[in-house]
Amino acid sequence: MTRRRQIYEGKAKILYEGPEPGTLIQYFKDDATAFNAQKKGTINGKGVLNNRISEHIFTLLGTIGIPHHFMRRLNMREQLIRQVEIIPIEVVIRNVAAGSLSKRLGIEEGQQLPRTIIEYYYKDDALGDPLVTDEHIACFGWASQEEMHDIADMAIRVNDFMCGLFAGVGIKLVDFKLEFGRLWENEYARVILADEISPDGCRLWDMVTNEKLDKDRFRRDLGGEVEAYQEVARRLGLLPEGADNVVLDLETQRKKRGR
Ligand code: UDP
């Protein structure tokens, strides 16, 4: 394969120039980071699973009319996406108290919230992604009021859909992070869902045991990270029954064939 131009390398993904103008290739790495990249590690096979899980969720969101950047999965670790201008806001949706919310406000982890909360964090590694309000977003022009309206609207619809999707497979959607981007068409930008949706950016707890099936296993040194991600994929019907390591085995075979 010809060498592709790398556009950007993030903590868990690399973006390459795509085959057509306005497209990119999103490559999922096995690298994991936490606490603003102070903790670093590798979860073998994570990228393969996240690529597949994210493909599945974006495809389903498309069927309910959520506009998104995903076009198609190319192989085990790559997907073709539309190039967007990422809005520098991480949108966190919370159904159950956990993580930074529990820490900041002293609310016990696992407490069901009486209503869903949407929070915004300014994407800036040097500042440690600080929590911001609509006022900051408007004041500094990170997104327009209209864009924020669309973002909040989509975030709630995505949350409703994903709560149901995961509840159907015995998983509680505690919280998750979304990112949005501007898709430019003839001087007009429309906001669409971007980035990825995977256990890296969601808190997913088993409905019965509250076992964590997400990146908190890595953050908190609980072990069994890849098994947890595989369990999410398996419950979503993305792994054949009884073939727990099939995704990773396939990748090993592909590498042996040199492709
Ligand atoms: N999250 C994320 N990327 C970030 C920060 C948070 O994907 O840079 C996700 C995280 O996985 C969780 C949700 O957003 O599902 C809320 O995270 P929280 O604010 O509790 O922060 P954390 O405890 O991860 O520091």
Automatic annotation (TrEMBL):
Its GO biological process annotations read: 'de novo' IMP biosynthetic process; cobalamin biosynthetic process
SAICAR synthetase/ADE2 N-terminal domain: which residues? Answer: 6-235
InterPro entries attached to this UniProt entry: SAICAR_synt/ADE2_N, SAICAR_synt_PurC, SAICAR_synth, SAICAR_synthetase, SAICAR_synthetase_CS
Pathway(s) the chain acts in: Purine metabolism; IMP biosynthesis via de novo pathway; 5-amino-1-(5-phospho-D-ribosyl)imidazole-4-carboxamide from 5-amino-1-(5-phospho-D-ribosyl)imidazole-4-carboxylate: step 1/2
Q: Which PROSITE patterns match?
A: SAICAR_SYNTHETASE_1 (PS01057), SAICAR_SYNTHETASE_2 (PS01058)
- What does it catalyze? 5-amino-1-(5-phospho-D-ribosyl)imidazole-4-carboxylate + L-aspartate + ATP = (2S)-2-[5-amino-1-(5-phospho-beta-D-ribosyl)imidazole-4-carboxamido]succinate + ADP + phosphate + 2 H(+)
Q: Name one Pfam family in it.
A: SAICAR_synt
GO CC, one annotated term: cytosol
Q: Which SUPFAM superfamilies match?
A: SAICAR synthase-like
Q: Name one GO molecular function term.
A: ATP binding
- Record keywords: ATP-binding, Ligase, Nucleotide-binding, Purine biosynthesis
State the family named in the UniProt similarity comment for this chain: Belongs to the SAICAR synthetase family.
Q: Name the NCBIfam families for this protein.
A: purC (TIGR00081)
Q: What is this protein called?
A: Phosphoribosylaminoimidazole-succinocarboxamide synthase
